[in-house]
Amino acid sequence: MANAFSTDANASGKSYSSFMPYSPPALVAGLVQHELVAGPTQLTILRIVDETGSASLGDIAEGLGDHPDPTGAVLVMVDLEILVIDYTDVIDQHSVVRRAPETPGPVDAEAEARRPSTFGCESLEVNSISTTTSDAALPTGIEQLATSPLVPTVVVAAGEARRGLGKLSALNRPGIYALIGERQVYVGASASVGTRVASGQQPIGDIKHIVVITDTNDTLCDEDARAAERMLFARIEATRAFAVMNELPMGAAIDAQRYSELDGFLGRACLALRHHGVMFTHGAARAVLSGPRQEAGRVAPLRPFNEMPDGTCMELCFDNGLVALAARQSDNRWIVLEGSDIRIETAASANSSVRFLRSAWLHAGLLELSADGRSFVTTRDLVFSSGSGAAQFCVGSKGRTRDSWVAIDPDGGIDPATPALIAA
DNA sequence: CTGGTACTGTCCCAGATATA
DNA sequence: TATATCTGGGACAGTACCAG
Fold first, then answer.
1. CA of A399 vs C1' of B11, distance in Å?
2. Is residue A144 assigned to a domain?
3. Are residues A19 and A82 in the same domain?
4. Pairing of strands A152-158, A83-86
């Protein structure tokens, strides 16, 4: 699947097209040129839409009969700006498809915001994106891409200057900080980071330096800061130059695009710290900028596909057909196996870790959209510290526990009910 | 020292589905 | 049609630990 997510030059600017394993579509003489949209398919889709002015994706799929990929066909036509699709969280059979406005006209920002912009990252917020030049000022056919407004401001203070950080109004905003000792670091975050550092009593002595990172444009919100705290924690832990004093922060529920933006933000901050000899001074600058692929210990050692993992193999079935497999190696070490289904949506009750990890692992390529688009699929064995944590991550909600995993026969033995089913 | 919060695990409820 | 079972989701308690 990895190759299907091409972002190369052939990828259309309409980003969801990048997850379709087909050639880029084109419109020639009013007819779509694409494997999924033959002439009759195009006519049928437009007829269904025109009957009432709009149609659900489910109606179109039904109208297309045995078409192999009706959703893909519709998305091709959306890509070509023949149709638009409205949906709330994810594209499903209830998503409404209608004709695109004929003239470019003013961009429907709200509808634009709902368009899928990266694989598997539906409902991405675009409020973090800013443009510096009005589209109207550009000639037709030229588009300035929006970029993240996150720009790190990095402040380094001596340990004894700690109290003074509370007096800097520029630090009275969400941000993250690190208290650096000889061989140990304490990482934290706060909605008002300067005050937090100045008045805190974190359990670390012999502080040599204090690093405070905020956003120059003050677009970093409290949730971003808590997510960035966990990400900085992982970056520092990966250097092995310091022992991180506190436990792994819980992170926050951010979407995959925001995760990517924060990662870039942190990369620039870490590079500044390297250039000033504060932290991240070992290894290549490139590695400092990119950071570790994943938190230490979350990816299990590589395992040949035909080799069974250690431990008891367990199975978790959910959402009418999705299956995750795990190896229970001990009460506090569960391995969710490569190829397991991970539900795309998360429930409102899902904890922040469930959402944070989805974004982190999409960013890292440890989760990919499945071939049928119904779920994410894990691309490596992933480590969890509890059965319920693993189950809740897979299902995307609470209410699943360690007992939700059912032991399976690692030798592929038949189900005890199979003889009865055959007899019937 | 205390309050707040996250994580884990258990319990319960509601709706859908299967079965008698 | 009534009942049983399954599944998804929320509420809650115990624990641990951070933050003030």
1. 10
2. no
3. yes
4. unpaired
Token readout for A232 is 């900085």
pLDDT for the residue A13: 23
A250 belongs to a structural domain = yes
Contacts of A80 by beta carbon, 8 Å cutoff, 6+ apart: A25, A26, A27, A32
Residues with CB under 7 A from strand C: A 188-190, 196, 199-203, 246-247, 317-320, 347-349, 395-400
Rounded Cα distance, A360 and A231, in Å: 9
Apex CA A298: angle with CA A399 and CA A120, to 5°?
A: 65
| A276 plus A195 within the same structural domain | yes
Domain of A37 in residue numbering reads as 2-116
Average pLDDT of chain A, as a whole number: 71
Q: Number of structural domains, chain A?
A: 3
Is pLDDT of A110 > 50?
Answer: no
Cα(A31)–Cα(A367) distance, integer angstroms: 36
User: Count of residues for chain A?
Assistant: 424
**Residue A54 φ/ψ, nearest 5 degrees:** -160, 160
Specify the higher pLDDT residue, A205 or A16: A205
Residues whose CB is less than 8 angstroms from the CB of residue A165 and which lie 6 or more positions away in sequence, other chains included: A155, A157, A171, A194, A197, A198, A210, A212
At how many degrees (to 10) do helices A352-364 and A222-239 cross? 60
pLDDT digits (tens, 9 = 90+) for A27-51: 776 777 777 787 778 878 887 787 7
A351 touches strand B (CB under 7 A): yes
Q: Are residues A16 and A104 in the same domain?
A: yes
Beta strand pairing status for A83-86 and A175-180?
unpaired
Higher pLDDT, A397 or A83: A83
Distance between the alpha carbon (CA) of A98 and the C1' atom of B19, Å: 43
DSSP H helical segments within A332-385, as ranges?
352-364
Strand B contact nucleotides, protein CB < 7 Å: 5-12
Q: How far apart are CA A368 and CA A119, in angstroms?
A: 8
Whether the model clears a pTM of 0.70, i.e. scores above it, the answer is no
**What φ, ψ does residue A407 adopt, rounded to 5°?**
-65, 140
pLDDT in tens, A349-379: 566 677 778 888 888 888 888 877 777 888 8
Q: Cα–Cα distance between A121 and A141 in angstroms, integer?
A: 27
With respect to residue A141, please indicate whether it lies within any of the assigned structural domains: no
> CA A344 to CA A374: how far, in whole Å?
7
